[in-house]
Automatic annotation (TrEMBL):
InterPro entries: ATPase_NBD, GppA/Ppx_hydrolase, Ppx_C, Ppx_GppA_N. GO terms for molecular function: pyrophosphatase activity. This is Exopolyphosphatase.
Amino acid sequence: MGRDVTGAGGFRRSAVIDLGSNSVRLVVFDGISRNPAPIFNEKVVLRLGRGLNATGRLNEEAVPLAMEVMARFNAIARGMEASPFEVLATAAVRDATNGPEFVAGLKSRLPGVPIRILSGEEEADYSATGVLCGIPDANGLVADIGGGSLELIRIENGRKCDACTLPLGVIRLDDRSDGDLARARTLVDEDLARVDWLEAVRGQDLYLVGGAFRALARMQIARTAYPLNIVHLYQLAPDTAREMTDWILSANKRSIERLPNVPRKRLDDAPFAATVLRRLMRHAQPNGLVFCVDGLREGWYMRNVAASVADNDPQQAVAREMCSMLGRSMQLPERLTDWTAPLFPDDDPVAARLRTVACWLSDVGAHDHPEYRAEQTYLRILRLQGVGFTHQARAFLSLTLAVRYGADLSVAYLQPSRQLLDPAQFARAVVLGQALRLAYTVSGGTEALLDGTRLEMAGGTLSLHFAPGRDVVQGESVRRRLERLGSAMDMSVRIRDH
């Protein structure tokens, strides 16, 4: 599915303001797409929920700033002609005694803009939908941490099964414990013990959503010199995650501040987020941890804007969109999928899908400068924003396409793929990239010339077959690239005419 950008003025944009206990954020989305495409994303830390546990009221010092920020966000969303446009208020506004008064003030500054105070269940619903936006086959526990609350959601086979809201947001936990981490640990254990369905998710994945959890991931990425500075679908094994929380709880704040790209405004919250995560792991005993950027805002988008495309596969959707914008043919990728299939007879469904995605992306560098085409395509795919590709999938696809455009495997920019892929995955990407390079040499990027040719493996030999009349496209470049494919597969090669 391509992105639908039709609407008033020739485009369609939608916007949501997420008004939380810690911060307020405006996101403006472009068009209708299976993968939300934010074109404006701005956050301001307000800490509206600071002191709420003691006073029962929103932070009086933050309220005037909130009104100012919300008026600015309203002007931006209106100026960008966003529709629908809504404000979603969460735990702090929901729980504060002066919440209704605050909302009344907002309505006077944002006339005509719906302001919804989400219940804990609604907040959990949006968060679960956001996670499933990028990971439609997710199974396990979603934990969405904010400043005021922690939403826990059990998801199974693409649907929400159980959910609850706990007063374990980082600001509220800090207030409830008077800043004492030992007391905070006890409070977390007491609250989690009341969630009687946590045993049902033991041994499954834990999906971490929310700014405080994302901050932990950024600290770990910086600390370990991880090769990809992308939080979305960053994964950790439980033992590594436990070691990470130990480090955050014991490290000197100044030593963390010296790390590159660390969110310094989150450093005071980090010990409380680490405490929640550590105790949550103890209760849920996850198989692995997955950090997810998609949450409440993306869940709102999928339900209110992009419901018509929600059932599409997110990986194939983005590949088709990129092919339609940057490639030369919308017919060739399907032929390439069939043409490369004989090289991978043992593909499981996940590997087969990734190969199909690679075929759809195989011409996205068509309009780049030839001297930089391989590198540009590699970086474009490796650093794609907000799609449902694991980091290993990004590394595989980007390597495949760099090889498709003739990259030398010794170049430095391929280092992320060397680190993220095991030897078998790396070799498979090289084979697929060489196969695609051969296919484009044979066909010139046209499905008509690819028709009547096929690959076959038998007896340790890789054969390129030409039907009668198709041998006109043979040449030295075809033979050379067939030999490189054979070398990557450790097979002899031959060309056969019929």
